[in-house]
Amino acid sequence: MTSSTSASAGGTTKPLNSRGKVLFASLIGTTIEFYDFYIYATAAVLVFPALFFPNQSDANQLLSPFAVFGVAFIARPLGSIVFGHFGDKIGRKATLVASLLTMGIATFLIGLLPAATNDGWVLLAPLLLVVLRFLQGLALGGEWSGAALLATENAPEGKRAVYGTFPQLGAPIGFILANLLFVLLSTVLTPEEFLEWGWRVPFLLSAVMVIVGLYVRLKLIESASFQKVQSEGKVVKVPLGTTFRLHWRGLILGTFIMFATYVLFYFMTAFTLTYGTAPSSLAQAQAKAEAAGKEFTDAQAAAFVPGLGMARTDFLWMLIIGVVFFGIFTLVSGPLAERFGRRKMLLGTTVGIAVFGLLWAPLFGAGTVGAMALLIIGFILMGLTFGPMAAVLPELFPANVRYTGSAVAYNVSSMIGAAPASFIAVALWQAAGGSTVLVGAYLTVAAVATFIALWVSRETRDHDYENNVA
């Protein structure tokens, strides 16, 4: 077996993967994965209602793409089991390559799907969209944990949280790349061209980034921690069984430690775009329907709930500005988590999220300026809570079940936190007649749940990360 380590004077091991290679490989993979994931989220708001659910009511056209969006989150726990099993059995490197290939192929094929408006595709097109969305979720279920372990298992002592911010940074970078491309296409193409073929370009271009990501990851050497598990014969036969039997507490805590982070992020991205670009008045809704050549019925008028009424491109630019703050504070969170400890730093951030939920409706009610303030504050909090997670969740588990444990916790949390988030937000907004006060209240409740999980957990900063096995 090719060694990835060299002995130091004290008898410990040092990774031979260089710092630049580790950080770039963990960053490029998650950037690609999140780019692929987010272009679906953006398309779900902008074009999928008309393309894949053309015969449904306006309300159901909004909800149906989000329901398909949630399919990926149901798949993610399954992906965490499958990829986690192989990540703890055969290694991090091969598993990361497999997850990236799965995500890339599924995303590319979404870009080739015929619309349901075409003859013979009314039922088949939405069904294939569900299947490919499921595969996206399956892949992301294995990607995140592998990238987190790639970074943290190669980190110097006292730098795990800092190194762990690099795979996390893939989320804001992937989001910015995806939405910049959508803004560019929306600008240079007519609405008809964008709806007909322009939306496919981001999905098809993902193939180029996948090739780059595969090249980088194939050049990696297996982590020292996993090779130590192998050399000592401590690879477990069934990682999932060992994890549930011996580390169930870590699974529960990790799931709820991530809960508010997931709710916040999908409120900040998918829901804000829906609310921000929804018509602000009946007159605007009628004008929008007329521009699209559709009849605005009495039933639609009765079910109408107002949004901000902003142009799609304008709000996408606001989101991109907000996500820049997400990226900056993701990097800031690493040193803070090393200095103050993961638990203390996240407790303070979670209190901030709870308060932010109470300010949600007043900020959105203050027009464009308030919306921009909401996006900046929300994404700052997102960076501070998301950044340390690549260190926190793996630290809850020993090396020989670390891939499985962190993946299952992360992705079960996605199923209960992220999957229903956009759907619940739209439903609460409609139930409140256009007010977003209930949306903010839900975020505050999520923050309380996460605060409790953090409160009963222990600090993990000083755990023996390399030598700890089940």
From TrEMBL:
Keyword Cell membrane: yes
Keyword Cytoplasm set for record: no
Pfam families recorded: Sugar_tr
Domain Major facilitator superfamily (MFS) profile: 22-458
InterPro entries for this protein: MFS_dom, MFS_sugar_transport-like, MFS_trans_sf, Sugar_transporter_CS
Keywords: Cell membrane, Membrane, Symport, Transmembrane, Transmembrane helix, Transport
Membrane-protein topology: Multi-pass membrane protein
UniProt-annotated location(s): Cell membrane
Membrane-spanning residues: 66-87, 94-115, 121-140, 161-185, 197-218, 251-273, 315-333, 345-365, 371-396, 408-431, 437-456
GO molecular function per UniProt: symporter activity
A GO CC term assigned to this protein in UniProt: plasma membrane
Protein task: May be a proton symporter involved in the uptake of osmolytes such as proline and glycine betaine.
Family (UniProt): Belongs to the major facilitator superfamily. Metabolite:H+ Symporter (MHS) family (TC 2.A.1.6) family.
Name of this protein: Putative proline/betaine transporter
Origin species: Arthrobacter pityocampae
